[in-house]
Specification:
Chain A is an alpha+beta fold. Chain A has one domain (about 10-130): Winged helix-like DNA-binding domain superfamily/Winged helix DNA-binding domain (Arc Repressor Mutant, subunit A, Orthogonal Bundle), CATH 1.10.10. In chain A, about 30% of the residues lie in helices and about 20% in strands. The first copy, chain A, has helices spanning about 10-25, 30-40, 45-60, 125-130, and strands spanning about 65, 70-75, 80-85, 90-95, 110, 110-125. In chain A, the strands form 3 sheets. Chain A has a two-stranded antiparallel ribbon. A two-stranded antiparallel sheet of chain A has the order 3-4. Chain A has a two-stranded antiparallel ribbon with strand order 5-6. Chain A starts with 11 loop residues before the first helix and ends in a 9-residue tail after the last helix. The complex binds manganese (II) ion (2 copies) and zinc ion (2 copies). Chain A binds a DNA duplex through helix 1 and helix 3.
Chain lengths: ~140, ~140
Amino acid sequence: MKNIKRPQRRSKQRQTILDELKKLTTHPTAVEMYEIVRETLPNISLGTVYRNLEMLAANGNIVKLKFGTSARFDGNSSRHYHVRCIHCGEVNDIDELPEDFVKQDFDKLGGYKIVGCKVEFVGICPTCSEKNINEVSQV
Amino acid sequence: MKNIKRPQRRSKQRQTILDELKKLTTHPTAVEMYEIVRETLPNISLGTVYRNLEMLAANGNIVKLKFGTSARFDGNSSRHYHVRCIHCGEVNDIDELPEDFVKQDFDKLGGYKIVGCKVEFVGICPTCSEKNINEVSQV
DNA sequence: ATCAATAATAGTAACTGTTACTATTATAAG
DNA sequence: CTTATAATAGTAACAGTTACTATTATTGAT
Ligand SMILES: [Mn+2]
Ligand SMILES: [Mn+2]
Ligand SMILES: [Zn+2]
Ligand SMILES: [Zn+2]
């Protein structure tokens, strides 16, 4: 349960992180983003990258994915889905769900042999909807 | 990328972990499972709980969920889905998807006000499907 | 039932990704 | 320009998980 605060000023660190992530179609980790942004801002710190990626995700500018051991970030915040390879961990986009999705009878998608599917709804539980909370358990 | 090995012998530690998890409708963390199993086996170690939960998940006996900061485990391995509260982190089951799921126009599910939905397909990428691999990037 | 081979364990150290802390710098309002 | 303070760089601390090692338990063979 951490309190992610809204940005109140602009910084070229945050802007660069956002710009660089938006250029990518991959789903980099924080460390991968750090390496990319350092080409523009050689003195940026890894902590700054983590803090801003969280901020941007909490604000809906980007999306945080929790697939592997480390989180991955997606500059494409419009609605789409993902496949992850169970062996190498590679993550690819799936733009549209199969029409028979509810029946769960797909065996191939985006070239992948599909072996499973996880759906995670994110929402506000009845108890929390009464309180007015700024905190977030997890982005 | 870790190599999760198949169990070759039975142990009452692993059996107890599985039995106790199957009794629950909640989605406990490894530490929560540790505390539960210790009531039956007071000398079990936390490492054993982690190792066996991974094994059981890799074998499809249970399901590993990666929502919050720590992984959660689900003794119900039959097809169903989850809602997570963005504020308190509570996880609940959603047994059936709404029929209009593909259109993504739901605003309430299981009492939760829905603000998002993530779909993660798990599969084998074209490159890995050629090789014959035992390793797994992530359960 | 005893034995031998070795899988699995308990206990703990090490590791990894992430978050917190603090002095310094940059932003933006007045 | 000045001033208040948000945001930063650099680093320490932390949490969850995984690896290591000596010991114990399981299983198949005798
Ligand atoms: Mn994507
Ligand atoms: Mn469940
Ligand atoms: Zn692959
Ligand atoms: Zn809640």
